[in-house]
């Protein structure tokens, strides 16, 4: 996994501050492959919250910019009450759950 270990706990904390204490976050995409270089940071978030997703996404993006600067970050957010799309399933199955790594 190509993510600075020192940033994982702050990312998990920022996600939970934005999307609730039960929110979970996975890193997926090229950053999970140690053999690759570069690439944006792809985060998949599951939340029990259903309201104000756009506002919460904006607040989270500002928090993540404070952590990562100008690094490109893609956020995929799914309220648990909604059925998962194939992308959500791929992110969960192939991604790294950051809340587990941050412990």
UniProtKB/TrEMBL annotation:
Alphabetical list of CDD domains matching this protein: NT_KNTase_like
Pfam families, per database record: NTP_transf_2 (PF01909)
Domain Polymerase nucleotidyl transferase positions: 12-78
Gene3D superfamilies the record matches: Beta Polymerase, domain 2
Name of protein: Polymerase nucleotidyl transferase domain-containing protein
Organism: Thiohalocapsa halophila
């Amino acid at each position: 996994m190509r993510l600075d270990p020192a940033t994982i706990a702050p990312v998990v904390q920022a996600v939970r501050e934005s999307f609730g204490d039960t929110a979970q976050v996975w890193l997926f995409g090229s950053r999970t492959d140690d053999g690759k270089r570069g690439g944006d940071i792809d985060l998949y978030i599951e939340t029990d919250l259903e309201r104000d997703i756009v506002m919460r996404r904006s607040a989270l993006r500002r928090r993540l910019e404070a952590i990562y600067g100008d690094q490109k970050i893609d956020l995929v957010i799914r309220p648990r009450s909604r059925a998962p799309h194939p992308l959500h399933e791929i992110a969960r199955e192939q991604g790294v759950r950051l809340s587990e790594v941050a412990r």
